[in-house]
Amino acid sequence: MKALVKERAEPGLWLTDVPEPELGPGEVKIRVLRTGICGTDLHIRKFDDWARHTLELPLVVGHEFSGHVVEVAPGVEDISVGDLVSGEGHLVCGKCRNCMAGRRHLCRNTVGLGVNRNGAFAEFVTLPASNVWVHRVPVHPDIAALFDPFGNAVHTALSFPLVGEDVLITGAGPIGLMAAAVATHVGARNVMITDVSDERLDLAGKLGVSLAVNVSRSSIAEGMRQLHLREGFDVGLEMSGNPTAVRDMLASMTHGGKIAMLGLPAEEFAVDWSTVVTSMITIKGVYGREMYETWYNMSVLLEKGLDLSPVITDRFSYRDFDAAFETAAGGRTGKVILDWSDASSSGETGGEPAGATTNRSA
């Protein structure tokens, strides 16, 4: 089968033929239809310091995907051949204290799809049945491929009550955009999002935010004045990992404000802990998704009309992966999708979400 592989310890990815994965006990085999390019995939392609110390090569990369089930192992229940599915890319041990207590998202022994085991940028992928999410309500394969990053957005956004609250989101990448859509959808009073990319801030406008601020030209304080906020934001969703954004968020919270942090900083930086203490600010670190409460939340949000289609801006054939990765690395787009449907015999092509740009080689 065709797969995108990190073959060598150097920058780049290679489209090559590899053996199809064999179905193991308790597993499900999936014919991949769509995949999404994640920041983790960009790190792997670049082969930065994190990738050099994390990966064992060769490795089939990718963890954001949707596809149709083609085979299930004996004893697997509630999953059938033909089901449209997404996958939870964090594989847990099931034996540690947190796993045994039902807190699987806190497993200390988590294995990452496309990082610690062969991933989904391929014609076929296998996963334990417990990591397979069946879409019981109709959903487009493009949107189904977003369930991993959408889960990050939902986990972060729903960390604290949002109804009637004023929400600040720092970072308008794809996950920040989806978090903005969630916050607006569930009843936040004001949702302000910041970034330095006009293109991404324009996308935020399509998702219904109250105000999108380019902090290279304006400030959070000016945005607060435009929204007539006198006491600061009630909830902060930090999606950038940028030290300046974190500091500005802390300075913009009301007393008793709550911050959920998903953005991963590249290095340590100083924080004004006196403000955290004297303003009695709660800070929660967020990683991945709650298994599987977040997945239920995602499905219900879509069922109740949440529209993520504006987040998808570019769509490529898997054969044009280099152009797709360059587009994603540019930091000016929403989500970039790779289409694998013509690599399989399923014949499923689906439609394109409204507003998406289709890029194909001649």
TrEMBL record:
Membrane is among the record's keywords: no
Compartments where located: Cytoplasm
Catalytic activity: L-threonine + NAD(+) = (2S)-2-amino-3-oxobutanoate + NADH + H(+)
GO BP annotations, alphabetical order: L-threonine catabolic process to glycine
Cofactor: Zn(2+)
Principal subcellular localization: cytoplasm
Site (Important for catalytic activity for the proton relay mechanism but does not participate directly in the coordination of zinc atom): 148
InterPro entries (UniProt xref): ADH-like_C, ADH-like_N, ADH_Zn_CS, ER, GroES-like_sf, L-Threonine_3-DHase, NAD(P)-bd_dom_sf, Zn_alcohol_dh
Binding site for NAD(+): 175, 195, 200, 262-264, 286-287
UniProt entry tagged with the keyword NAD: yes
Disordered: region residues: 342-362
Entry-linked Pfam families: ADH_N (PF08240), ADH_zinc_N (PF00107)
Gene Ontology CC entries for this record: cytoplasm
An example molecular function term from Gene Ontology annotations: zinc ion binding
EC code: 1.1.1.103
Pathway linked to the protein: Amino-acid degradation; L-threonine degradation via oxydo-reductase pathway; glycine from L-threonine: step 1/2
PANTHER family listed in its UniProt record: L-THREONINE 3-DEHYDROGENASE
Family: Belongs to the zinc-containing alcohol dehydrogenase family.
Full protein name: L-threonine 3-dehydrogenase
